[in-house]
From TrEMBL:
Protein name in UniProt: Ubiquinone/menaquinone biosynthesis C-methyltransferase UbiE
Uppermost EC category: transferase
Protein family (similarity comment): Belongs to the class I-like SAM-binding methyltransferase superfamily. MenG/UbiE family.
Keyword Transferase recorded: yes
Record-level Gene Ontology MF annotations: 2-methoxy-6-polyprenyl-1,4-benzoquinol methyltransferase activity; demethylmenaquinone methyltransferase activity
Described purpose of this protein according to its UniProt entry: Methyltransferase required for the conversion of demethylmenaquinol (DMKH2) to menaquinol (MKH2) and the conversion of 2-polyprenyl-6-methoxy-1,4-benzoquinol (DDMQH2) to 2-polyprenyl-3-methyl-6-methoxy-1,4-benzoquinol (DMQH2).
EC number(s) per entry: 2.1.1.163, 2.1.1.201
Gene name of this polypeptide: ubiE
UniProt catalytic activity: a 2-demethylmenaquinol + S-adenosyl-L-methionine = a menaquinol + S-adenosyl-L-homocysteine + H(+); a 2-methoxy-6-(all-trans-polyprenyl)benzene-1,4-diol + S-adenosyl-L-methionine = a 5-methoxy-2-methyl-3-(all-trans-polyprenyl)benzene-1,4-diol + S-adenosyl-L-homocysteine + H(+)
Positions annotated to bind S-adenosyl-L-methionine: T66, D87, N115, A116
Gene Ontology biological-process entries: methylation
Organism: Luteimonas endophytica
Pathway: Cofactor biosynthesis; ubiquinone biosynthesis; Quinol/quinone metabolism; menaquinone biosynthesis; menaquinol from 1,4-dihydroxy-2-naphthoate: step 2/2
Length: 243
């Protein structure tokens, strides 16, 4: 029952990620709350509250999933702005659209099924591009970063919220225990899907840590790149600008 994703070529990783998210779409929101003890809501609020965005802006939320970030961003761009929720997975996107509609959030939203590695938008389309807990699932992260830069307007900001490297040494064993022992069991119990949550834990460990991701953003062509750790580096917010 273990994924052999270490050796498989990238096309299979994409298929695997597709299966994981189709499988977890229905239980995704509940699982986020359980796994992070609700803290992901605070991270997301902070991520949006400190983003460079104003009323009337056009915003792209990549790997937008069930729409947590998009809903928060919508409060900031207002009715005059536009929010495009992009995700590669139809099931996640549908869950997101249903959630938005249930909350009365309809105007100013667009849903686009797309791969972050090749965006179906013209150059300089957006004031802000965000990707939250999504970049680590993308196979060709360099391509995704280049695409984020391309679709940004000059002066625009790209923001990445992602799991990162915990800073304190003493905390790492606890964190690994949580990731590799607790998470799959929660997944088995509440989502009947331990494998998907095992994949998620592994993908977190394999994601480039703070300085490496910052260097990747610089290499992609972003200016003024920087990051801020949240909760001791469990997650980090990376920023880059198009100049
Ligand atoms: N941003 C949402 C949030 O913070 O709750 C969802 C995050 S979820 C962990 C990751 C999402 O990334 C999934 O919805 C998945 O379908 C999407 N995804 C994975 N690979 C992708 C890709 N190459 N392009 C676009 N979306 C992708």
């Amino acid at each position: 029952t273990h994924f052999g994703y270490r050796e498989v070529p990238s096309i299979d990783k994409q298929k695997l990620v597709g299966e994981v998210f189709s499988s977890v779409a229905g239980s995704y929101d509940l699982m986020n709350d359980l796994m992070s003890l609700g803290i992901h809501r605070v991270w997301k609020r902070y991520f949006v509250a400190t983003a460079q965005v104003k009323r009337g802006d056009r915003v792209l939320d990549l790997a937008g999933g069930t729409g947590d970030i998009a809903a928060l961003l919508h409060e900031r761009v207002g009715e005059g702005g536009e929010l495009v929720l992009g995700d590669i997975n139809g099931a996640m996107l549908r869950t997101g659209r249903d959630r938005m509609t249930d909350r009365g959030l309809v105007r100013g939203f667009r849903y686009v099924q797309c791969n972050a590695e090749g965006l179906p938008f013209p150059d300089a389309s957006f004031d802000l591009v965000t990707i939250a807990f999504g970049l680590r699932n993308v196979t060709d992260k360099e391509a995704a970063l280049r695409e984020m830069l391309r679709v940004l307007k000059v002066g625009g900001q790209a923001r990445v919220l992602e799991f990162s490297r915990v800073r304190a040494d003493w905390f790492r064993p606890l964190y690994d225990f949580h990731s590799f022992q607790v998470l799959p069991r929660l997944g088995a119990l509440f989502a009947r899907d331990a494998d998907s949550y095992r994949y998620l834990a592994e993908s977190i460990r394999r994601h480039p840590p703070q300085d490496e991701l910052k260097a990747m953003m610089e290499a992609a062509g972003f200016a003024r790149c920087g990051y801020r750790n949240l909760t001791g580096g469990i997650v980090a917010i990376h920023d880059g600008y198009k100049v």
